[in-house]
Specification:
A hairpin with a 2-residue loop joins strand 6 and strand 7. The chain is α/β, with parallel strands linked by helices. Helix 2 packs across helix 4. The protein is globular, with a radius of gyration of 14 Å. The protein is 28% helix and 26% strand. The relative contact order is 0.17. The chain has a single domain, classed as Glutaredoxin (3-Layer(aba) Sandwich). It has a five-stranded mixed beta sheet with strand order 3-5-4-6-7, sandwiched between helices. The chain has a two-stranded antiparallel ribbon with strand order 1-2. The chain binds zinc ion. Zinc ion (ZN) binds next to loops.
Amino acid sequence: MSEQSFHLVCPHCQATNRVPAARLSAAPKCGKCGQPLLTASPHELNAQTANKVIQKNDVLTIVDFWASWCQPCIMMAPEFKSAASQLPQVFFAKVQTDRYEQAAAPYNIRSLPTMVAFRNGKEVARQSGALPSHQIIQWVQSLQS
Ligand SMILES: [Zn+2]
């Protein structure tokens, strides 16, 4: 297990990094741009970065699919941010589906907001409807192995 390493896409420059498992909890930095790979805050993805992050990230990655017209989505935004700040080893991201329809299309999102959890490029769970931060945290923790 200690020899294992994970691919992690830099949220700043989109370079794919390989991070040894033991370094994941030690604030790993991007080998290309030097910025933190895990920032404990959600990253806004567009059509291009969404595909790359979702397919390349080996670590647990939680994507909030939302839209600007969706009231529950707007209400959940600070809750999602708060959950991200408390789970620094999880990659949190957001996709604005009314702006980047193509980014959401492959994931068959039927209602908003929907949070989808990915690991190793595959969906592992999804949760529809707005949740308060403590329930987001509970859900994410239940997915961590
Ligand atoms: Zn970078």
